[in-house]
Amino acid sequence: SWDIWGLGCLIWEVFNGTLPQPSSLKIVDKIPKSLVPHYCELVSANPRSRPDPLKFLNDCQVNGHFLDNQFVKINLELEELQFMDQDKRTSLFNALNKELDSFPQKFCQYRILPMLVNAFEFGGAGSSVLSPLFRLGKLLDDSDYQARIVPCVVKLFSSTDRATRINLLQQLKEFAEHLTCSTVERDIFPNVSTGFLDTVPAMREATVKSMLLLVPKLSEKAINNQLLKHFARLQMDEQPGIRTNTTLCIAKIAQHFSDTTRQKVLIPAFTRALRDPFGPARVAGITAIMTTRDFYKPSDVVTRLLPPLCTLTLDPSKDVRDQTFQAFQLFLGKLRGLSENPQTTVDEAGGSQRGVVGTASSWAGWAFGSLTSRLSKGRESGDVSTPVQVTSNTVKRAGNHQVSDTSTQDSEQVVSSKVDQDKQSQELRVDEVRPWICSDIYLFTVHL
């Protein structure tokens, strides 16, 4: 009875502060109303009327009383975790995951988290423990996380249970930032990559999506020798959804490829998607091309991207056609910007990171080839000045004024000057007609 009375004093001090004198136990204004009846029994003047601890706890857990809440219920169930079957454990962990935000942070870190780690390592808790485990792991600093959570993660990735691995991949965003590059490449990626070959489509799809978080931690060798080979196979997967997601994933992780890898991989991968019989996969291919537009050289845009996009302007799916026209407007706008200002960099115009000095000549050659007839018509109508024809008679007429060697030198200078003027006139005409190309293509696209 003395201990029970002491428990009543402790409850009073929890809500009021230090107990100044025994008579203050009668002041119950700050004690929760649902606890007052049970508290009064604890500090009763008659020792025989005081309840035993078990009766006090049971009475407080009655519906509507002070200890009737999820915090108490879940913690009592965690004490009996090792005696539960798998179904009850799953139900408990799901309830815990929903209520974690309402629990005291320090209590979660120093009480619940160690219990979850022990349950995983020694109790066979299964994949249902992952959600609360990773959420509470955020309360740890990086060194503690590496010591307590990462070993559990590595162990889970080696599991052969599909449910566990899929759940783990879905929770990857909760702990990916704590994984080091060496851990990912040495311990995690070899196990994850087996999911690319799994017979269950959900496993293959979850593995593809997980690459968004794992690729930044992989070396170029692992990307080129392993990952891209799996992606090439998945682009021909029997499941259209997996083919679509693979294309989008390649576009999102392209920034982590080397320049050489991008030049070899992106255009073949995306143009393959443009030929996919599944409509959303074709839309994904167009979207991927637009997303990675800064990685293409102008010559590749003109010769390798725009031709296959042209065929999609008559695609049976309206979504594909709409996306195709958006792609045309995007690329033609960048081509027009490069045409109007040839001195700008390709990156600023939407190409690669190289300057346009090396590619301007090829663009000019394309302009000459497509506008030969227009230039000829311009000369015939007189809109374009006729080049000066320099013949031997011209030299002779210039030589009538002087008969010395000096007259010959002067005539040669006249010829050279006129030839230079002719070249400048031709270059000017090229600059004037280059914008016509983009205008004609744009109008044709709008007409379609």
Task: Give a structural overview.
This protein is mostly helical and 448 residues long. It is built from 23 helices and no strands. The chain has helices at 2-16, 36-42, 53-60, 70-79, 86-99, 105-122, 130-137, 142-148, 150-157, 162-170, 181-192, 201-214, 220-234, 240-253, 259-274, 279-291, 298-311, 318-340, 346-349, 357-370, 372-381, 392-399, 405-447. It is elongated.
SSE-based structural type: mainly alpha
Beta-strand content: under 5%
How many DSSP E strands? 0
Give a quick account of the main beta sheet: strands, pairing sense, barrel closure: none
Give descriptors for this structure.
448 residues; mainly alpha; 23 helices; elongated
Topology:
Layout: H1 2-16, H2 36-42, H3 53-60, H4 70-79, H5 86-99, H6 105-122, H7 130-137, H8 142-148, H9 150-157, H10 162-170, H11 181-192, H12 201-214, H13 220-234, H14 240-253, H15 259-274, H16 279-291, H17 298-311, H18 318-340, H19 346-349, H20 357-370, H21 372-381, H22 392-399, H23 405-447
Helix pairs in contact: 1-2, 4-5, 6-7, 10-12, 12-14, 14-15, 14-16, 15-16, 16-18, 17-18, 18-23, 20-23, 22-23
In short:
By secondary structure, this protein is mainly α. The chain contains 23 helices and no strands. The model is unreliable at 346-419 and 423-438 (pLDDT under 50).
